[in-house]
Design brief:
CATH architecture: Beta Barrel
Structural class: alpha+beta
Number of strands: 10
Radius of gyration: 17 Å
Helix content: 10-25%
Largest sheet: 6 strands, mixed, barrel
Length: 192
């Protein structure tokens, strides 16, 4: 069976900030919680989380029932690779709390993508121009919210900078952590 996941707006090479917004989220892994910025993308037909990110922050993954390939809107295979794991993790967006389900993939540009399943489930009112997200659906007001239903988007450059700080901070805080480096030139040498 071939699954076509509409575009992710070609997440691998996103250049247009008008087709998505960034929002700060907090994920609660098995040992720690992490604050990161997620992309809300109405072109993504699934919710995704980066495989390396799950590993780094002890976000538990489970084997998917079936392996699924990810395709872009033009029918080409995505660099994200096949989906072989899923993750369920507690997630906060402002005072909105839920148990979120993600497909685990190699995400080159974002750690978390909230797509159409998330948008349909919570039906937030999004003012794309103002970058304002309001959770006012019956589901959210009954189950997800602790307080105010409105959160604000973050400019993508700021979101990426904050995410980089989180990643660097996590790398520095662990002893004996090895960093994987891909050589782009066979003649290149890694300084020691």
């Amino acid at each position: 069976m071939r699954n076509l996941y509409a575009a992710l707006n070609k997440t691998e090479t996103l250049d247009n900030e008008n087709d998505h917004i960034m929002v700060q989220i907090q994920l609660h892994g098995t040992k720690t919680q992490v604050t990161i910025n997620a992309m809300i993308d109405s072109g993504a037909t699934e919710n995704f989380i980066d495989k390396e990110f799950c590993s780094k922050y002890n976000i538990r993954t489970t084997q998917a029932k079936t392996t699924r390939e990810v395709y872009l809107a033009d029918g080409q295979p995505s660099a994200m690779g096949p989906i072989i794991h899923a993750a369920k993790v507690a997630m906060d967006i402002g005072t909105h709390r839920e148990l979120a389900t993600f497909q685990v993939a190699k995400l080159p540009n974002h750690e978390v993508i909230l797509g159409m399943p998330w948008l349909k489930r919570h039906s937030p009112r999004i003012d794309w121009g103002q970058g304002k997200i309001t959770f006012e659906s019956e589901r959210c007001t009954t189950w997800c919210l602790k307080e105010s239903p409105t959160v604000y988007a973050i400019p993508e450059d700021k979101a990426r900078e904050e995410n980089l700080k989180v990643e660097i901070g996590a790398t520095r805080s662990k002893k004996d952590q090895r960093i994987q480096v891909r050589l782009l030139d066979p003649q290149a040498r890694i300084p020691t």
